[in-house]
Amino acid sequence: MASSPVSQSMSHRTHTTPSMPARIKTVALLATVLALAGCANKAPPPLYGWNGYEKNLDTYFRGDRESLDTQAKLMEDDLQKMRAAGQATPPGYQAHLGLLHGKQGDLGRFQQHLQAEKAQFPESETFVNFLLRKFKSN
């Protein structure tokens, strides 16, 4: 039995391209995957290097057993780590470290850290100047 031209053309369609709805689904899936991949970028690094600052503040204000000298040493160590990592100190860090030194009688380091706080955060100038005057009068 001879096959008709229509049946011959049907038999050659086994390797056809996907239909239009299948193409749209493929393109939509690809676009979604690319969009999600773009959103998967790493989060920006933190603005400040906090290290153990919150714990140090908590220790200070709770009056825990660590001496002022130990607290200052821990903060100085963290400060060196932040500088080595290229991180900025958070607001109040230098001022708190300066106060620890001031309470131990090291007025040179007290002033140094408060001046650094004022330089990094100019909005702290009024408070820092108050602290500097208070320690000079005592």
Folded structure, characterized:
There is one protein chain. The chain is built from seven helices and no strands. By secondary structure, it is an all-alpha fold. The chain has a domain at 53-137: Serine Threonine Protein Phosphatase 5, Tetratricopeptide repeat (Alpha Horseshoe). The longest helix is centred in the first third of the chain and has 20 residues, at 20-39. The chain is elongated, with a radius of gyration of 33 Å. 17% of the residues are buried. The model has no long low-confidence stretch (mean pLDDT 86). Residues 1-19 have a biased composition (Polar residues). Pfam families: DUF4810 (PF16068). Residues 1-20 are annotated as: Disordered.
